Amino acid sequence: MSRSPSLSPQVQDRLLLRTEPWLSCEDCFELMDGFAEVLARDGQAGRAGVDLAMELHLRGCPGCFEEVESLVALLREDAAASRAAH
Ligand SMILES: [Zn+2]
Questions:
Q1: Of 11, 46, 53, 65, which has the fewest Cβ atoms less than 10 A away?
Q2: Would you list the domain boundaries of the chain?
Q3: Could you give the CA distance from residue 80 to residue 74 in angstroms, rounded to a whole number?
């Protein structure tokens, strides 16, 4: 009776491809800049595929988590400073 709002097989495939079960710290560092930028600007992560993998990694990796946190703090300071300069 109820149709679950399931994703089409094509979309599921793409999500699975893009959401590798676990990023290595190296992968994490490569994606970190963009991830932190979106986080600093919007207050939340953007693209589901990358972000899910990132979030999973960050949950299990305090080192990368701290990196992202300090990056976001840095970007926010920059943004606040450039706003104040106007
Ligand atoms: Zn890591």
A1: 11
A2: 9-84
A3: 10
pLDDT band at 63 (very low <50, low <70, confident <90, very high): very high
How close is the Cα of 54 to the center of ligand 1, in Å? 9
CA of 61 relative to ligand 1 center, distance in Å: 5
In 3D space, the residue among 31, 19, 21 whose CA is nearest the CA of residue 68 turns out to be: 31
CA distance 13 to 19: 10
* Centre of ligand 1 from the C-alpha of residue 67, in Å: 9
Would you state the pLDDT for residue 56? Answer: 84
Q: Which residues are placed with Cβ below 5 angstroms of ligand 1, an ion?
A: 25, 28, 61, 64
Confirm if 65 and 58 have CB atoms less than 8 A apart. Answer: yes
Residue 62 has pLDDT above 60, yes or no: yes
Q: 76 vs 42, 71, 82, CA distance in Å?
A: 11, 9, 10
